[in-house]
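ping. complex inputs:
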Amino acid sequence: MNTQISRSRFSKDPVQIRLSGAGGQGLITAGVILAEAAVVDGKNVVQTQSYGPEARLGASKSEVIISTKKIAYPQVTKPDILLCLSQDAFEKYFPQTNSDTLLILDSGQIEPQASDGRLIYALPITETAAATGSKVVANVVALGVMNALAGLVMPSSLREAVAKRVPERFRALNEHALEAGEKLAEPLKNRKETVA
Amino acid sequence: MLREQYSEYLRSEELPSVWCPGCGNGIIVKALVNAIAALSLRRDDVVLVGGIGCSGRTPFILDFNTMHTTHGRALAFATGIKLARPELKVIVAMGDGDASAIGGNHFIHACRRNIDLAAIIFNNAIYGQTGGQLAPTTPQGKRSTTSLLGTIEPNFDLCKLALGAGAGFVARTTVFDFHELIETLTRALTHKGFSVVEALTPCPTYFGRMNDLREPYEMLHYLKDQTIPQALEDVPDEAAQMKRLPTGIFKDEQRMEYTELYSQLCKAAKGAAVSSSE
Amino acid sequence: MPERKAKAKKPRLIQGNEACTYGALYAGCSFYAGYPITPSSEIMELMSRELPKTEGVFIQMEDEIASISAVIGAAWAGKKAMTATSGPGFSLMQEGIGYAAITETPCVIVNSQRWGPSTGQPTKTAQGDVMQAIWGTHGDHPVIVLTASHVRDVFEMTVTAFNFSEQYRVPVILLLDEVLSHMRENVCLPEPGERNLIERQRPARADGFKPFKDLTFLPFGAGARFNVTGMAHDEDGFPAQAAEADRQLRRIMNKIHQNVEKVALYEELHLDDARVLIVTYGITSRAAENAVEELRAEGVPVGLVNLKTLWPFPDFLFERLGQNVSHLLVPELNLGQLVREVKRAVQGRWLTVEHLGRVDGSLITPQQIVEAIHQLTGTKIPKEGVQQC
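pong. complex structure:
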């Protein structure tokens, strides 16, 4: 086993991840899949979510904390990674990031306002999902992107988690989405692109 | 039934009961004991659940597994008991307040589920234990301590309510018709499903005093005059029914009973669990 | 908090509400009656799938009053029974909880707290039902109130809730909250046999059994034809007044309060040298844990008590606090509930008790606790320990 692969490229432990977007974009499922993969890796993990009016309209979020140590406080205090799949979510959660935060956003959904020169990975996530078969799997494309860029969990664990948490009849579609996400991030893995 | 046989079912140390002279509840209890004896039910296998009010005192005096519950909830307690131990015969003694006011929701849902409980509604058309207040069963125009000028509210027909909600067995009779009451209760206890027996019973202390029927015999005659053995559908109109309430067994139909359906569900669930683990 | 991990067991990612359901099933719960309400509904959904597989009973009742009533009925028919709800439903259950208390009915009521009163914010968290859990029903009454901090803890405390309810013949209330109910964590659940399970004590014989004399219990249909009533009653279950009613009420209260040291569970951290003590419970204890770590790193001598049992209240714990402790901080997701008990328990002692409340539907953060303690002690890093006030 190559433990190098599974080591988070963030030396941070715990690593705090916030997945945000609009209700219905599957962010809770994405959080659960990522958490499940971390469990496969033998890590400690906490996954929480924001329900309520936010789950139907406006910004919705799901959070995952992964650590080799015990996780006490269960919610993200400062995100190490922020994924945004909607403009609302970006506007709501971008101010809570700092210069260390890895920002991944859907370039087809979000137009970042004048940025502070921060590094942002803006990728056509929903568009890629649609090309794979359905916009519905944008959440899993995003997971593929995020893991390729950040190495949060073993890629095989992420596959196992998808298989575990996705209904049988959608499995193939989601596996393709994961792959598409990983491919989408591939050219960016060793360089950082600035947007805006 | 002989006095000795009758007393076998009573908790003599709890007698006399709290019921007033002239109250009809004792007649319902006697009829119930007759029915249980006729069916040779073992006392250990009978659970008698009561609500709150005069009728709710029934569990204290009868020597079964007995439970005096909260106001209106007797059916919900009984549902728990029956589901937990389907082999027990669970009988519920309720007042009209229990069944149609505070526990109306539980009543309609017990009917809908058709769970095998025998529900006897001691309907005295008034709140006796709390001092003669208006009940949802007080006939329109009658007086109570909270409707001194006569109630403006129409009253519930509990049998129609039970029929509408899906009970398998629905009957109404009065304590005046003692032998019919025994026969009706016997059939209700035999019925597999939710059975409702509305037993009209006199409350001379409150209903009588408030409505010029002070003497117990006057109230018994009132019950007789107010009712008529008749099928519900034969009643020409609402107004006629208000005058003379039909009595009789209105429905005795077998349909799948809840605990049987639940048992089937368990078999299906077990089967599914086995096949998914294979 | 010991992190015990069995080597052979594979951890699973499970939700707080799932852990509660699995805990109940592990404890032998074979009857569930409930009514849907956010954020507790997943417990009911999972029960509806799991119980029929083992011929346990699941029923969705018409409301919460019916749910608790059916649970009590099932308990008297011999089942380990439970229901789960949230604030508004919990209020409806208070009538039945009183009945369960006076009739000494073993049963478990789970309340996943949400922001209230009334409909409030059903998907936002709170710890606002502490007082209702303890004092919610009418009249003096015995009840045990437990809580939990993390997903595995939810499992363990559900098992404990059943054990206490069986042992002491008392309704046990388990307080969860929206975040804990919906949160997922990696958990290794114990194998059958790994936890001690308590069953209600049976009397030696059914003949002459007195159902309200002591902790022994017989269900209906076991040959002892007794009466159960919500009225004040004697040892046989028949109406009692005056002296007997007084004696019986004191007996059912004492069976809990005289056993407070067995029932009042808690965890402690740095209690030996703490000058400032955080008294916390439930989900909030997790922020407190991080805050302690941070403050200790700064050199602030802070300790933590995480109460797993909220009632009976562990007065003994506060009576035994050393002279070293001068300040107490009670963070809660309410405007001041358990802090009243803490103040009562330390009254007459040279101690400052402060409350940190949050009621916007979010968790208290570690940073808020750190700041509150800085403020409380009046100095960021006390050199010579905290000044007595």
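Confidence is low (pLDDT under 50) at residues 1-8, 192-196 of chain A.
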